[in-house]
Design goal:
The chain is an alpha/beta fold and about 550 residues long. About 35% of the residues lie in helices and about 25% in strands. It has 18 helices and 27 strands. The chain binds alpha-D-glucose-1-phosphate-6-vanadate (VG1) and cobalt (II) ion.
């Protein structure tokens, strides 16, 4: 049967929620309902500029639904006149590698199939992220336009009568008038890393007495980490754990934090077997860094990378500036000030870094949620952060714990923690949030945890590049000694609501730098619980995840 474009009519429009911090995330079951994936892809293809005649990149983290979605997207792209579709062997493509492929091939954008750290499988979640021509998440103007189309959509176009795509080997095939190129998803990314980091120095470190452990959590970074760490850098076989991507991530929750990556955390924090450990999330854009008996908080990680950036060849000439998301601690700000660099504070979500990176105002950026990255692509990049740390360790030849201690001795320490209350009843979460928001004006000048509340607001951001305003980004209580507490509701959860409580307190170099963060932040933790009635309203004794 010859390939023909079919116009499928929908009896009712596709009324979905607005895509959140990281694209559209829903249960796999929802994505399997008729016309669901197709409707979102149709809306995206109608909005993205340059579709007809353009190049599109497609791939995902290998979770359940990945291959089927690539087939659907390819047939729809062909029906919309896309000239060239680039996908990868097995359809496996990490988010950072996708960003690089988009940029390298002058694509109009990409479709990344992932729900990131959310569990996968038939009972888990699936997700679709739409990236633009700069390789980054599309800005709000585009996601808003896609959402608007979904509200009135009455049909979609798709190619019918085509054979199944051959994804198992690199090669070229035709789908109607569109060329489908299957490329090795790892190769181009590895070449980029080799340009940025000193592979000789890291190789020397790893071939010596420096055992490391990397946990790919049965998700997308397995093939990348195996080729780089065990292949090119000579780390012993077995360095990469859980390195085969599985459709359900082995039943795990591929979120690189102390709760979900606890096996790795125990190895590093509870034994002396390894000098360095790291894990990445489902789609490979986030990272957790551990040293021997040392957890590196992600906000501190950004600060350390900023302070030591010139040790890596890709950043040897210095940085243009740095940016962090609002809930991320101000540890990087202190380093930026010391180095005379501009420092920006953006809302949560990588898309807000895109304009600053494109305009050349920043080189490094990061989020407290284990996301760090640079101007090499337009996504956060888990393995990049791991290699950056290894590059620094190879040059400084000091234990991670010592690097942290020296950092705090120089810049002071930002005690920091995030408490997540996951899957709570939506009404309870929204009720709690609304109540605190309404209380805010009366809180200024009030006592809080032995300090005084200096500012209480809902964070809003004016983009310094294009002037766009984004409001409603998190409730802040800024205290007179520079400490703060922030409340946010997650935009990536799919079950009920997730409340995130961010706690931060700065101690200068002369102060006590060796406390346990939960103890150092104890008074703030108690005060926000009393004010926001967190335990009472969520019905939870303690957070699901403490970072
Ligand atoms: C979370 C993190 C945020 C991150 C986002 C996407 O969002 O807090 O910092 O950018 O996940 O990361 P939220 O709205 O749940 O707090 V990923 O690795 O899921 O693409
Ligand atoms: Co992710």
């Amino acid at each position: 049967m010859a390939a023909t474009v079919q116009q499928i009519s929908l009896s009712s429009p596709f009324a979905d929620q607005k895509p959140g911090t990281s694209g559209l995330r829903k249960s796999s079951k929802q994505f399997e309902t008729p016309h669901y994936l197709e409707s979102f892809i149709e809306s995206s293809l109608r909005v993205l500029p340059g579709v007809a005649g353009g190049t599109l990149v497609v791939g995902g983290d290998g979770r359940y639904g990945n291959r089927r979605a690539i087939g659907v997207i390819a047939r729809m792209a062909a029906a919309h006149g896309v000239a060239r579709l680039i996908t990868t062997t097995g359809g496996i493509l990490s988010t950072p590698a996708a960003s690089h492929l988009i940029r390298q091939n002058g694509a109009i954008g990409g479709v990344i199939l992932s729900a990131s750290h959310n569990p996968g499988g038939p009972e888990g979640d699936f997700g679709v992220k739409i990236n633009g021509a700069n390789g980054g998440p599309t800005p709000e103007s585009i996601t808003d336009a896609i959402f608007a189309v979904t509200q009135t959509l009455d049909g979609y176009r798709i190619l019918e009568g085509t054979p199944e795509l051959a994804l198992d080997q690199p090669g070229s095939q035709q789908l109607g008038a569109m060329t489908v190129e299957v490329v090795d998803g790892v190769e181009a990314y590895v070449a980029l890393m080799q340009k940025l980091f000193d592979f000789d120095a890291i190789g020397d470190l790893l071939r010596g007495d420096f055992p490391i452990a990397f946990d790919a959590m049965h998700a997308v970074t397995g093939p990348y980490a195996t080729r780089i760490l065990e292949g090119l850098l000579g780390a012993p076989a077995g360095t990469v754990r859980n390195g085969t991507p599985l459709e359900d991530f082995g039943g795990g929750h591929p979120d690189p934090n102390l709760t979900y990556a606890h096996e790795l955390a125990e190895l590093l924090l509870g034994s002396d077997a390894y000098r360095f450990g790291a894990a990445c999330d489902g789609d490979g854009d986030r990272n957790m860094i551990l040293g021997q008996r040392c957890f590196v908080n992600p906000s501190d990680s950004l600060a350390v990378l900023t302070a030591n950036a010139t040790l890596a060849p890709g950043y040897a000439d210095g940085l243009a500036g740095v940016a962090r998301s609002m809930p991320t601690s101000a540890a990087a700000d202190v380093v930026a000030k010391d180095l005379g660099l501009p420092c920006y504070e953006t809302p949560t979500g990588w898309k807000f870094f895109g304009n600053l990176l494109d305009a050349g105002r920043i080189t490094l950026c990061g989020e407290e949620s284990f996301g760090t990255g640079s101007n090499h692509i337009r996504e956060k990049d888990g393995l990049w952060a791991v290699l950056f740390w290894l590059n620094i360790l190879a040059r400084r030849r000091e234990p991670v714990a010592q690097i942290m201690a020296e950092h705090w001795n120089r810049f002071g320490r930002h005690y920091y923690s995030r408490h997540d209350y996951e899957a709570i009843a939506s009404e309870a979460a929204h009720g709690l949030y609304k109540r605190v928001k309404e209380m805010q004006p009366a809180l200024v000048g009030q006592a809080f945890a032995g300090r005084t509340i200096a500012t209480a607001d809902d964070f809003a951001y004016t983009d310094p590049v294009d002037g766009s305003l984004t409001s409603g980004q998190g409730l802040r209580l800024l205290l007179d000694d520079g400490s703060r507490v922030v409340l946010r509701l997650s935009g990536t959860g799919t079950q009920g609501a997730t409340l995130r409580v961010y706690l931060e307190s700065y101690v200068p170099p002369s102060g006590n730098l060796a406390q346990d963060p939960q103890a150092a932040l104890g008074d703030l933790i108690n005060a926000i619980d009393a004010l926001a009635e967190i335990k009472a309203r969520t019905g939870m004794d303690r957070p699901t995840v403490i970072t």
